Amino acid sequence: MGSRMAATSATTFSIGSTMSFSPKGSSLSQSKAFGMRLNTRSFLSFSGLKGVSSISCESESSFLGKESTAALRHSVKPKAQKQNRRSWNNLQPQASYKVAVLGAAGGIGQPLALLIKMSPLVSALHLYDIANVKGVAADLSHCNTPSQVLDFTGASELANSLKGVNVVVIPAGVARKPGMTRDDLFNINANIVKTLVEAVAENCPDAFIHIISNPINSTVPIAAEVLKQKGVYDPKKLFGVSTLDVVRANTFVAQKKNLKLIDVDVPVVGGHAGITILPLLSKTKPSASFTDEEVQELTVRIQNAGTEVVEAKAGAGSATLSMAYAAARFVESSLRALDGDSDVYECCYIQSELTELPFFASRVKIGRKGVEAVISSDLQGLTEYEEKALEALKPELKASIEKGISFVHKQPVAA
Ligand SMILES: NC(=O)c1ccc[n+]([C@@H]2O[C@H](COP(=O)([O-])OP(=O)(O)OC[C@H]3O[C@@H](n4cnc5c(N)ncnc54)[C@H](O)[C@@H]3O)[C@@H](O)[C@H]2O)c1
């Protein structure tokens, strides 16, 4: 995200840079950028200035899509005409959705909440955590964007945090710390995801569910089993957020090949850990050629990018800001889909029939009811390297899926 706040009364605020995938045109992999740049002299929006003077939108930036831009425009204009800057109600965009973040006080949760607070498609932002969420909500609530921020602390407030919610994002859990085994991490996060998804099943069973808590190769199957046992499983609405792999792939490929970042679109399939992450470099748009060494180097870098961040932070945590950015992009895509945009494509980890594995990350089309189509063409015409990598990842991904399923079978949910 980039913002430039001028010292004069004229302010330019431009948001982010990413792309969404367009099915139109000659190729399914054609990328398309949506976004906006707001040239404000004095309007009440992210800039915090007063009265509308100009708002122009260009398709060159942001995970905020064209629907969002239209909603923002709508939200700003009537507000300014009324010259009433005190009532938040007058700032509601035409389309408005409720989003809950579970684990909102964490390293990912906080910047993610901030980015969601910037979305004009959101009318209410529910922040839930077991501790420290009151301050986060108070802080965020001072941002003069349309959504209302509510805080919910502890298990007794979990149900209320989920009532009427359209999208639930779950970054709750622990990140791996020194001395912790993978099994320790699995057991803690598996229990957290199980408990939270039980509450989702009871309070907002129709919501889109975005799972961020690792290991998502297992926590998504856990969520699916919980929802099944609760009798409310809709596989089209359960998503493992693997967007960070795509964000990283796009960035690293653009750097390597000297491409304009906004144009680059690399599908990433498989799972979301180590070798299960498979960037399909041969499907890069715009089309780019890679030497064998480049393929190897880029693939390994994308697979191990999390470690790059952990090492750079030197004990102070793992990827939180880039993860929040990626998760916010996925939330925005979901909201645009819910709002009727028929042009929403993302890679994510879902129940799938694309391979013999019951869960698999791939590019999908998202609509009002969740996953509308799986883009199978991405797996056709793979290079020999990609074919081999695809076969190599399957046993590990299969084991992770089975581990998640058997975790829930060993401790079934309360009916
Ligand atoms: N999907 C991805 O690409 C990706 C990337 C990075 C990290 N992660 C995962 O995201 C998770 C969170 O990472 P982080 O860096 O924000 O960790 P963090 O420790 O900074 O934050 C986790 C938050 O979850 C809260 N929490 C713990 N138990 C809870 C419960 N039962 N209910 C609600 N909230 C609870 C904690 O209080 C804390 O605020 C980890 O599992 C991490 O591995 C996923």
From TrEMBL:
Protein EC: 1.1.1.37
Domain Lactate/malate dehydrogenase C-terminal: start-end pairs: 243-407
InterPro entries in alphabetical order: Lactate/malate_DH_C (IPR022383), Lactate/malate_DH_N (IPR001236), Lactate_DH/Glyco_Ohase_4_C (IPR015955), Malate_DH_type1 (IPR010097), NAD(P)-bd_dom_sf (IPR036291)
Reactions this protein catalyses: (S)-malate + NAD(+) = oxaloacetate + NADH + H(+)
Superkingdom of source: Eukaryota
Residue span, Lactate/malate dehydrogenase N-terminal domain: 98-240
Gene Ontology terms: biological process: tricarboxylic acid cycle
SUPFAM superfamilies per the UniProt record, alphabetical: LDH C-terminal domain-like, NAD(P)-binding Rossmann-fold domains
Record carries keyword Oxidoreductase: yes
Pfam short name (any one): Ldh_1_N
GO cellular component: cytoplasm
GO molecular function per UniProt: L-malate dehydrogenase (NAD+) activity
Keywords linked to the UniProt accession: NAD, Oxidoreductase, Tricarboxylic acid cycle
Quaternary structure, from the entry: Homodimer.
Family: Belongs to the LDH/MDH superfamily. MDH type 1 family.
Name by which UniProt lists this protein: malate dehydrogenase
Annotated organism of origin: Ilex paraguariensis
Organismal lineage: Eukaryota, Viridiplantae, Streptophyta, Embryophyta, Tracheophyta
